[in-house]
């Protein structure tokens, strides 16, 4: 009997030849990531264990991204705690306030390769499955155990494979595909399952688009998101990493495999409406909804392809009167590309605010919060009540194309 990609990766990590869904294993961790917001609790828990040194400083990555530059004394304190920890533990893979969002920085800097087990104290760590790794979010106290031992318990998940076929229309993107899937499956429809994305549509997607899909696996309850590595994966890794890696793929006869068929021929842009990510409607049903703020960025849609798409729509136009638009590239690498290509000038000329690479308003803890009664249209991944500021505000989620078109009109707009 065959195994799924998730099963194969966790079998290798736990020194087993075969594992089954539901089995509990102790797996070796290849990469452990934490950031400025959740890191301090991990450090505090690690110190309580009483172990002086982390298991392997070269396998720990620390990224400052949630509150950068520091916007409060609490944020400053968190940064100081993590800088002290990094220095004491001799952690070389430390990306201070300049590099950008952790889920973009890790693959850019070569920390993500196929076949590895990656954990992070952030629920959207599942993003890295786009490169064929088993990557998942864990709690800060679990991370303390990883710091100390380099191992963690896992229950082997079942796998849902989304076989995505058809041809995307103009102005329909990966974000629309995954929102549509989440709307169908529901917020808890894939709880603790590996969400694997396949089919001709996924194969045609860029690595950036695959990252969008895997990033949002958690929004339907998934343990991780996965895409089988292919030549695009190999090409992406060239020049980014010197790691050896093993490509693993799902066997069609795997016992725990469930396949769901999705056709996108007739798919139009999708909108996640307040206050749940699975409250998804086609843009035609919510067109004309007034908005106060546009957020173009985040670990979901702050990549260069998103900025190019938005700039093409907005070039020569202006952000609608009464609307605030924040453009936040996901990393310094993306920021500099956008700068070189003149994309940032397009946004500035249109009246948008271009901010430093960071999480921005995504978590409601930094720049660009929204007030009571206000409406945000965001390219990020969550729209829970209070997510981007006031609990009396509303957040809608969309692709970069819908966000750009809506910025110009001041209301939710189909980019066609």
TrEMBL record:
Broad EC category: lyase
User: Residues that bind [4Fe-4S] cluster, according to the entry?
Assistant: 299, 359, 362
**Residue stretches making up the Aconitase/3-isopropylmalate dehydratase large subunit alpha/beta/alpha domain:** 8-410
Role this protein plays: Catalyzes the isomerization between 2-isopropylmalate and 3-isopropylmalate, via the formation of 2-isopropylmaleate.
The protein's gene is named leuC
Catalytic activities: (2R,3S)-3-isopropylmalate = (2S)-2-isopropylmalate
Q: How is the cofactor bound?
A: Binds 1 [4Fe-4S] cluster per subunit.
A Gene Ontology biological process in which this protein takes part is: L-leucine biosynthetic process
Known CDD domains for this protein? IPMI
Q: What's the EC number here? A: 4.2.1.33
InterPro entries attached here?
Answer: Acnase/IPM_dHydase_lsu_aba_1/3, Acoase/IPM_deHydtase_lsu_aba, Aconitase_4Fe-4S_BS, Aconitase_4Fe-4S_dom, HAcnase/IPMdehydase_lsu_prok, Homoacnase/IPMdehydase_lsu, IPM_dehydratase_rel_enz, IPMI_cat
Subunit structure, interactors included: Heterodimer of LeuC and LeuD.
Q: Where is the signal peptide?
A: none
Cofactor entry: [4Fe-4S] cluster
UniProt family annotation: Belongs to the aconitase/IPM isomerase family. LeuC type 2 subfamily.
Q: Provide the GO MF annotations for this entry.
A: 3-isopropylmalate dehydratase activity; 4 iron, 4 sulfur cluster binding; metal ion binding
HAMAP family tied to this protein = LeuC_type2
Sorted UniProt keywords: 4Fe-4S, Amino-acid biosynthesis, Branched-chain amino acid biosynthesis, Iron, Iron-sulfur, Leucine biosynthesis, Lyase, Metal-binding
Which pathway is this protein engaged in? Amino-acid biosynthesis; L-leucine biosynthesis; L-leucine from 3-methyl-2-oxobutanoate: step 2/4
| Record carries keyword Iron-sulfur | yes
Pfam families in the record: Aconitase
Q: What is this protein called?
A: 3-isopropylmalate dehydratase large subunit
């Amino acid at each position: 009997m065959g195994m799924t990609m998730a099963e194969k990766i966790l079998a290798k990590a736990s020194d087993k030849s075969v594992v089954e869904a539901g089995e509990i294993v102790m797996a070796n961790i290849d990469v452990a990531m934490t950031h400025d917001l959740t890191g301090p609790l991990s450090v505090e828990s690690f110190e309580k264990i009483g172990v002086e040194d982390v298991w392997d400083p070269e396998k720990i990555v620390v990224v400052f991204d949630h509150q950068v530059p520091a916007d409060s004394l609490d944020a400053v304190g968190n940064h100081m705690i993590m800088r002290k920890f990094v220095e004491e533990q001799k952690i070389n893979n430390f990306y201070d306030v300049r590099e950008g969002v952790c889920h973009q920085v890790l693959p850019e800097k070569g920390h993500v390769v196929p076949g590895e087990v990656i954990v992070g104290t952030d629920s959207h760590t599942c993003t890295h499955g786009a490169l064929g790794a088993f990557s998942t979010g864990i709690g800060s106290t679990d991370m303390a155990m990883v710091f100390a031992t380099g191992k963690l318990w896992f229950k082997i998940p079942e796998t849902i494979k989304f076989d995505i076929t058809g041809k995307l229309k103009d102005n329909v993107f990966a974000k629309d595909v995954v929102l549509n899937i989440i709307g169908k499956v529901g917020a808890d429809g894939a709880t603790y399952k590996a969400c694997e994305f396949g089919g001709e549509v996924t194969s045609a997607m860029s690595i950036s688009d695959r990252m969008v899909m895997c990033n949002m696996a958690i929004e339907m309850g998934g343990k991780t998101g996965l895409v089988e590595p292919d030549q695009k994966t190999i090409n992406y890794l060239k020049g980014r990493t010197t790691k050896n890696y093993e490509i693993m793929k799902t066997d069609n006869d795997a016992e725990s495999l469930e396949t769901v068929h999705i056709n996108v021929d007739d798919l139009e842009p999708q909108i996640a409406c307040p206050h749940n990510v699975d409250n998804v409607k086609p843009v035609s049903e919510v067109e004309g909804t007034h908005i106060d703020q546009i957020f173009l960025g985040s670990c979901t849609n702050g990549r260069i392809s998103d900025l190019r798409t938005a700039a093409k729509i907005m070039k020569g136009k202006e952000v609608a009167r009464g609307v605030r638009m924040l453009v936040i590239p996901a990393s310094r690498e993306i920021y500099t590309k956008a700068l070189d290509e003149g994309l940032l000038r397009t946004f500035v000329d249109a009246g948008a605010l271009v901010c430093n690479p960071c999480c921005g308003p995504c978590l409601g803890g930094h720049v660009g919060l929204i007030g009571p009664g206000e409406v945000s249209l965001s390219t990020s991944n969550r729209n829970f009540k209070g997510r981007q500021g006031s609990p009396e505000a509303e957040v809608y989620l969309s692709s970069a194309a819908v966000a750009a078109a809506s910025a110009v009109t001041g209301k939710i707009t189909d980019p066609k």
